Structure formats: structure tokens, C-alpha cells
Amino acid sequence: MYTLLKQEGTARRGEFKTVHGTVQMPAFMNVATCAAIKGGLSAYDLQNINTQVMLSNTYHLHLRPGDETVKKLGGLHKMTGWNGVILTDSGGFQVFSLAKLNNITEEGVVFNSHIDGKRIFMGPEESMRIQSNLGSTIAMAFDECVENPAPYDYAKASVKRTTNWLNRCKAEMDRLNSLDGTINPHQMLFGINQGATYRDLRIDHMKEIAALDLDGYAIGGLAVGEPAETMYEIIEAVEPFAPKDKPRYLMGVGTPVNILEAVYRGVDLFDCVMPSRNARHGHLFTWSGIINIMNAKYELDENPIDSECDCPVCQHHTRAYLRHLFKAKEMLGMRLAVMHNLYFYNTLMQKIRDNLDAGSYEVFYQKYRNILDKRI
């Protein structure tokens, strides 16, 4: 259940109550694709860096170790040791981006596994059953992800297919939640707004799925190569038609400035692999901009990554040491870098919430929108 606590312009400060805890929003979900953060962080590390929500991937966990295996192990919470909120994506994006597609029909998608080439079928019911086996707090509806730019007629047909699939997801989740032996009988369902970059398709689709009274609503199919301004325009177009009493989730976004801009336009929830991926290559976020720890100027630098950061890494280690770890190809370097970047993101969300609480988000937004993506 979502409660809107305060609003400044379109920006929203809310909280979302679930069976696995209450999420203070706006929030960023830390991405644990295969039930682990790439870079060597465990569920227990996530608790120490103020993570609220962990996101795991339906497609990858279905292939390995298998969702039936995860269910036998008690679900994702028991398997990983994470006791907070978990969102699982539907597998749709990975099916369309990673796998070799064979056929898309109204029933679902036949594809070849990117691991071993095995032929697999996934449709709305299969995605819901996999996510039920994983036992996540929030399941995402199975949708079709089209490439941008997409022809208008194809995008329109794809939206219709996604809506049909959403109705089937809802029916199947209701059935699964009623069964004995379901790991999480309180599992929630978020629908996904699609329509490529066409305002009319996006608006019509949001109106249509809003009528289904789902637990939350996502905006999908963006941040896939289109200009950032186009993404912001789509958010502005659909926001008035998204239910006010449900969370809004912008999928796969993004940079700190993307988040500032999307919060400004009424989005509550985010996820992205970028902060951990960048960290593994030595690109670290600070309150003054982005640094590349591999640069020679940090060889003798005894300062923390960011003097304004109180993460475990900045409290105990220097830039010089971190640079050494990367140059020596020590695994610890990646682990510390990922820990810092995710802490930075979680802290960014806390500062956003604090400023919304204080009625000063406009000032915070104007100050940092021109700083946080700057390369130092």
C-alpha cells in the first residue's frame, strides 16, 4: 500500500508498505541480477550501505540455478539472507535483449538460452510462476520490449499484446497467491507502461492499465538509447494518468542526474546496473562529480574517495590504496568501489527524501543537476 506523504510540484515523497517492510520513497533498488551484486557484495553488505530494495532477475534465475531450485531452498529471501523487499523483473527485457529469438506470438516467446542454446518458452503465466517460486515481494508483469525507434504500427500492436499479457499475469498471480505452498501469498504485481516514444500510445496505455488497480506502475522501454530529453518528455506525458495512490517505477534508470530529473517529474522508484558496473571499472561517484580512480594523479592521494561521504570505504581507505588495488587487479578493489557507488546512490535517495520532507527539493535539484554527472 502506497501513501503519499508530501508533494513539491510533481515530485512525490511517499512510503510503500509491503509484507517484507516499508520502503521510503523515492528509492533506488540495488541490482542483484543473479541474487548477488556483481563486485562481491552480499545481502549483509547491502544492509550496511542502507539498501531498501534488492532487485533480482527472473530470466537469469530461471536458467541458473532454476526457479524450482530456488523454491526448494525457501525462496530468494532465505537463499540470499536478505530480509528486506525484493523486486523481480519479469524476464521480458532479457528475453528480447540477450536471447536469440525464434518467435513472438500472442501466447508468449520462444527463445534460445544465451547460456547453452536450449529452447525455452516464456509467456505471462510462466513468468508469474517463476516469480512466485522465487518468492519476491513484487513481481513485474511480462511485457514486450520493443527497440527504439520502433515503427508506429508495430509499437501499437506491441502495446495491445502487452496489455493482454498483463491481464493474464494478474489472473495467474491471483491463482498462485491462493495456493497452499506458495512462498509469498502476498506477492504484489506491477504493470508496465509501453508505447516506444509515441506520446499517444504511452498515454492511452497508461489510462488502460491504470484501470486494472494494480499494486504499482512502471514505465518501461526507455533509457535504451533515446536522448534523455525524450525520456523526460515521455515521463511528463504519462505522469498525469498514472494513479496517484500507487508507486511509479522508471525501469533501468539511471545516472544520478536522470534520477533527479525523474523525481522532479513524479517518479518514485528506480533501478540500474550502471553504478555497480561503473564501479568495477574504477568510475566513482562523488558529490563533486565522477572520478576515474585509475588516473595517475591519485597514486599518492591519501584522501578518501569523497570527503563528503561517510560510507565504510571512505571511512577507512584512501584513493591511493583503491587505485593500487585496481592496478594490481585485486578483487577487493572492485568490491570497495561497488560498495561506495551503491552507498552514494542510497545516500542520494535519502537526501532527495530529506529535501522533499523539508520542502526544499527545488533548491537541491537545481544545485546538483549540473554537478553529479560532471567528470572531474
TrEMBL record:
**Enzyme Commission number(s):** 2.4.2.29
- The UniProt annotation puts the region (RNA binding) at 252-258
Spell out the SUPFAM superfamilies in the cross-references.
Answer: tRNA-guanine transglycosylase
Q: Which residues form a coiled coil?
A: none
Q: How is the cofactor bound?
A: Binds 1 zinc ion per subunit.
Provide a GO CC annotation, any one: cytosol
Share an example GO biological-process annotation for this protein: tRNA queuosine(34) biosynthetic process
Q: Where does Zn(2+) bind?
A: C309, C311, C314, H340
List required co-factors: Zn(2+)
Q: Domain named tRNA-guanine(15) transglycosylase-like: which ranges?
A: 11-369
Active-site positions on this chain: D89, D271
Please provide an example of a Pfam family that matches this protein in its UniProt record.
TGT
- Where on the tree of life does the source sit, at the highest rank? Bacteria
For substrate, which residues are the binding ones? D89, S90, G91, G92, F93, D143, Q194, G221
State its role.
Answer: Catalyzes the base-exchange of a guanine (G) residue with the queuine precursor 7-aminomethyl-7-deazaguanine (PreQ1) at position 34 (anticodon wobble position) in tRNAs with GU(N) anticodons (tRNA-Asp, -Asn, -His and -Tyr). Catalysis occurs through a double-displacement mechanism. The nucleophile active site attacks the C1' of nucleotide 34 to detach the guanine base from the RNA, forming a covalent enzyme-RNA intermediate. The proton acceptor active site deprotonates the incoming PreQ1, allowing a nucleophilic attack on the C1' of the ribose to form the product.
Identify its protein family: Belongs to the queuine tRNA-ribosyltransferase family.
- HAMAP family reported for this sequence: Q_tRNA_Tgt
Subunit structure of this entry?
A: Homodimer. Within each dimer, one monomer is responsible for RNA recognition and catalysis, while the other monomer binds to the replacement base PreQ1.
Q: Which PANTHER family match?
A: QUEUINE TRNA-RIBOSYLTRANSFERASE
User: What name does UniProt use for this protein?
Assistant: Queuine tRNA-ribosyltransferase
Give the species: Ruminococcus difficilis
